[in-house]
Amino acid sequence: MTLTNEFFQQLESLFPKAADSPWYVYAALVFQANDRMELISSTWRYVQSTTSKAEDQIVKARKMREALLKASVLVGFPKGINACTTLRKALLADSPEIESELDKDSSLRQHLSRSEKDARGMDFFSKIYAQHTDRVLQNMSVASGGDLSEFAINAVYGDLMAEESRLNAKETGLLEFLACYATGGSVWAQAKGHMYGSHNLGNGKAEIQGAVKICDTIEETLDIKVNRAPAENWSWLAKAEKW
User: Which PANTHER family does the record cross-reference, listed alphabetically (predicted)?
Assistant: First the structure.
């Protein structure tokens, strides 16, 4: 399916307007979650066509790549590989000079020590879950012999999510929420936790509802069916109306 510029303009209009609006990372995430990798390429082409300065294009390409990487732990690592590979192929085809710059990048995470990962992971996790932090960690720990909480703090948060140089904490928190919302089904509780977590990281009604509308619009346009039943499992979404 080919999506028009008008469709991407519609998606862009659903998110709060700003010079550095990250709406496109949330659109790309929804395509990634639903295995519509070719539409990640379409998203990049639209972003490039509406971004005049080459240096701004590079910033957005890095931000998009970082979002696909971070989303991989939430929607599936193989999808993360395919999404990042798809973006790189699109850049090579349409923006080789930009991909040449991105190919010079080294890992943002390779020099982190274990203690650094643990410290920044706990800090980021605590900002999301606030007063519920200990309970959430304890629940994960007892469900897994201690490994889920260990993995979450050191790897998911310390290594991956807490890196803020390309996708900041506010943007990352909203990404986590939207990844769970886009998945639907049994992860409604995680979606709920991350909606509140994204609010703790600075997202308000406009950002949360804008991200949801981007997801809903893509699902409707592509006829994607996501299980969000029973409705009472998702009734907490109304809380964002008051933010």
Answer: CONSERVED MITOCHONDRIAL PROTEIN-RELATED (PTHR28180), PEROXISOMAL PROTEIN 2 (PTHR28180:SF2)
> Is there a domain that residue 5 lies in?
no
Segments forming the whole domain that contains residue 128: 109-162
Q: Quickly tell me which residue has 């609006």 as its tokens.
A: 21
Residues 214 and 115 occupy one common structural domain: no
Whether 19 shows a pLDDT value over 90: the answer reads no
**Greatest pairwise CA separation for the chain in angstroms:** 52
Query: How many distinct structural domains can be found in the chain?
Result: 2
What is the band of 1 on the pLDDT scale with cuts at 50, 70, 90? confident
Question: Is residue 46 exposed (0-12), middle (13-18) or buried (19+ Cβ within 10 Å)?
Answer: buried
pLDDT one-digit tens code per residue, 96-129: 999 999 999 999 999 999 999 999 999 999 999 9
pTM exceeds 0.70: yes
Q: Between the CA of residue 179 and those of 11, 26, 127, what are the distances in Å?
A: 17, 9, 19
